[in-house]
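quick one before i forget lol
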Amino acid sequence: MILSNLEKRRNKIILYFDESEKIEIYYDVYLNLSIFKGDEISPKRIEEIKLANAEFEVKNSAFRYLSNRNHSIFELKNKLKKKGFDSQIIEKVITYLIDIKYLNDLTFAKNFVRNRVEGKKEGVMKITSELYRKGITREIIAEVTESIKENPKNIKNAFELGKSKLEKIQKKGKTDFTKIKSKLFLFLKGRGFTSDVIFEVIRKLNIKDEEFD
């Protein structure tokens, strides 16, 4: 087919062919094609152009997501699938992003842990659960969460949260130590802290040391 005309529209360009066919592609894609009005374009070449355009569109979407925040590979893949992109093209783009260091699950997990410990004051159990949901492997989760257990910030976060919760409970006039401890335990457990950390916090808060059922 002969490329009979070209029409630019904003960030895209329409390629018209002599057999009343036309395809619309991104202008950036066109710039890399080295094709001009009057050129004869084979059906195979047209399919290659369509594929290049589809890959460009998936890359654009991926970069938009990544510009907002870091994503795990699993997260980004799912978002691209929900947009209806071809699964093979998604896999190709994901591989490309890994190769150019835009996607890295270990880096993502380390940053995620840092944010959750320092920003949201979450415990290791909750962080671990969230990382699993984001498709992070057991090996990476084990590596990035190991540091939480030794991090003084972990105990400090739990203590500050526990102290604040204790003050709220006491303001309500509750004095039953067993009930107070139970409420603290469940509260801190919900924030993702381990039983060892919670008992340590209760000890530091001078709550009577009794066993929980």
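fyi Residues 1-41 form one domain.
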